[in-house]
Design brief:
mainly alpha, 3 helices
Amino acid sequence: MSGLFHSRRPNSARRSYRDLKRSGPRYPVGQGHRLKHPSDNSFSERRKSAESARRQLIAKFESAPKPTDPVMQERLAAREAVASARTARRAERDAMKAVENDRLLREAAALAEVAEAHHRAEAEARQLEANNRIARVVADEAARKAERDRRYAARKARRA
């Protein structure tokens, strides 16, 4: 543990915070190092620089083109033309989408109608098959009863 403040040296050899603070600045000092806002300029110099910056800003805004200038009028007209063309394209695109949606709805309705007809035909076929099966079962049962009755009659005839 050989830190800056906590070392195993005797108290006389320890460096204190005050000693570190007195050792000087941690940033480079010299000709190449300049502060962003040097503190040696006076109030009047700062006021003059602020006034000149304000004048430059005002001159910049005064030299900007006015809305009544022909160049600005041309730009505004071009901007409006682009906006109207954009709205026309949007309207055309919306109309095309509506036509496509109508076509898709008609196709979906036709497909649903075909599917419904197919389901109806399948249901009718199932019902017909069930009716045929029932008819066969009834016919087989009637044939069995007829055979039983014939055997019963033959037995009675033999006994008599």
